[in-house]
Specification:
The protein is α/β, with parallel strands linked by helices and 538 residues long. Helix content is 33%, strand content 16%. It has 14 helices and 15 strands. A nine-stranded mixed sheet has the order 1-4-5-7-6-8-9-10-11, with helices on both faces. It has a two-stranded antiparallel ribbon with strand order 2-3. β6, α2 and β7 form a beta-alpha-beta unit. The longest helix has 27 residues. The chain is globular.
């Protein structure tokens, strides 16, 4: 009897597998607007090719239907997209993942974890193919439609076409749709909330490069300063040590982390060499360079801030100032590709000649409307029931976390000025606080999209771990969208900075709240901290 039951189960599984394969291959004939499905095959469980360094940990993806397609909404468009559909255990939801840098490829490792969670998941190359660790934008020269594809059209097209493919495969719509991305993916996330507020129910925007034209201007600002007077990477530990010594205790506990680096007013002149140049001090020119990096670019004619500078406290942490800022680092490559290729379309453009007044205005006018997602009007996204979680590491040396604060505050100011007229007589809707649908979490010590020091593991899109809403940003978003449970905090974990042999947990609080030590108990335990408003704001 048991033998017959076992044989019957095997037969049923075999039939289900065959039907899944047939349903998958059948998608190759699906007719979609200006889109061609180039491949639809059943993929068994197995390792996923890594887009990262050769020593990256292997990633395994469950069995799925792998669909690849090309969308051509304009004559000069060639938007590649890929969607993975779970063979079994679909959770009824769709997740789209964002890109990094200038995009140009699809990172299949980013699709694996959402697939394991039961999602149908998709991604795009943003309309062009590039190679190399820091690809530029040569494809933008003479191709304005490709710049638009990169700016916003490719992500929106992928959402439309992937959902149609999903619908054909499963025979029904996704119950919920989510988007998650960091860096350029964070820019894409905010672009979706602003331009296409009905595409997604929930959005995760990590370290968004949303003020693209001004961010890359800041890169050139740093490149020019370092070209005039370099700061060797060997001096970064002395800088960080001096900053932490001056400001570590401001948040109530000396733990090697600055809860809010804005409260630190360390003067680089304190490091001025007194007995000749050395690795533990700065020359007068290096003090001036450091001040420029901390302060950020300004328009010389008016003194207006173009983009925020970089906060203090993590200068020597691996993956932060080196390789991003010094010697000049990765920032310079991005800044030169933006102005040289996307703005001026000149292969011989010289960063030393950038005019921080007229050239910045030209870039804003030519490329800004396509690439920037800085519009503070999120009313349509809010009114559609959308929820937005944004996160940013205080140690991010690629995109200043102060930019995330600036955008959040612009949304707050906009909503205060333009309350919802439909509810002006309803006291329940009198509060125009963006926290009703939009929360920003700043992460102590974290570098660009992950890494760094401190409580930098919180299940973000590049480092998924625990699946509960207290420890995982996607789970927190699901709880908010699907159950109305807004995240009052997210618990980050990592290693204690002053003693890496000890585990560290810390609450990540929704801005403008910060984590404040209660005054007793283990400072490495999140339960001994409380989220509260900063003293100077109460």
């Amino acid at each position: 009897m048991l033998t017959r039951l076992f044989a019957g189960a095997l037969l049923l599984a075999s039939i289900e597998s065959l039907l899944a394969q047939q349903a998958c291959s059948g998608l190759s004939t699906l007719s979609l607007p200006h889109t061609t499905i180039t491949s639809a095959v059943s993929a068994p469980e197995g390792a996923v090719p890594s887009a990262g360094p050769g020593n990256a940990a292997p990633v395994t993806a469950p069995a799925h239907c792998d669909v690849q397609a090309v969308a051509r909404p304009t004559k000069d468009s060639e938007i590649r997209l890929q969607i993975w559909l779970p063979v079994s255990g679909w959770n009824g939801k769709y997740l789209q993942v964002g890109n990094g840098g200038w995009a140009g490829s699809i990172d299949q490792t980013a699709l694996a974890d959402p697939l394991r969670r039961g999602y149908a998941v998709a991604a795009t190359d943003d309309g062009h193919q590039s190679a190399g660790p820091v690809p530029g934008a040569p494809w933008a020269v003479g191709h304005p439609e490709k710049l638009i594809d990169f700016g916003y059209r490719a992500v929106h097209e992928t959402s439309i076409q992937a959902k149609a493919i999903l619908r054909a495969y499963f025979g029904r719509e996704a119950a919920r749709s989510y988007f998650g991305g960091c860096s350029d993916g964070g820019r894409e996330a905010l672009m979706e909330a602003q331009r296409y507020p009905e595409d997604f129910d929930g959005i995760i925007a990590g370290a968004p490069a949303n003020n693209w034209s001004h961010l890359f201007t800041g890169f050139i600002w740093n490149e020019q300063a370092l070209a005039e007077t370099p700061i060797p990477a060997a001096k970064l530990p002395a800088i960080q040590h001096a900053v932490v010594a001056a400001c570590d205790a401001l948040d109530g506990v000396k733990d090697g982390l600055l809860e809010d680096p804005r409260a630190c007013h360390f003067d680089p002149a304190a490091l001025l060499c007194k007995a000749g140049d050395a690795t533990d001090c700065l020359t007068e020119g290096q003090v001036a360079t450091l001040r420029k990096i901390y302060s950020g670019p300004k328009t010389p004619r008016t003194g207006k801030q173009i983009f925020p500078g970089y906060p203090m406290g993590t200068e020597a942490v691996p993956g932060t100032w080196s390789p991003w800022i010094v010697p000049p680092g990765v920032q310079a490559s991005f800044g030169n590709s933006y102005y040289g290729q996307a703005v001026f379309e000149q292969s011989n453009w010289d960063f030393r000649k950038l005019n921080f007044d007229t050239d910045v205005e030209f870039g804003d006018a030519k490329a800004g409307p396509v690439l920037n997602s800085t519009n503070p009007d999120l009313r349509s996204f809010r009114d559609n029931g959308g929820k937005l979680i944004q996160y940013h590491g205080w140690g991010d040396a690629a995109i200043s976390p102060l930019n995330s604060i600036d955008y959040y505050e612009s949304v707050r100011a906009f909503l205060s000025r333009f309350p919802d007229a439909r509810h002006q007589n309803d006291a329940r809707h009198a509060n125009t606080d963006p926290m009703d649908f939009y929360r920003l979490f700043l992460v102590h010590g974290m570098a660009h999209c992950g890494g760094g020091i401190g409580p930098n593991d919180f299940g973000n899109t590049r480092n998924p771990t625990l699946a509960d809403a207290d420890h995982n940003v996607l789970s927190a978003l699901e709880a908010w969208v699907e159950r109305g449970a807004a995240p009052s905090k997210i618990i980050g974990s990592g290693k204690a900075v002053n003693d890496p042999s000890k585990a560290l947990t810390r609450p990540l609080c929704p801005y403008p709240q910060t984590a404040r030590y209660r005054g007793s108990g283990d400072p490495n335990d999140a339960k001994n901290f409380a989220c509260s408003m900063p003293a100077n704001s109460q």
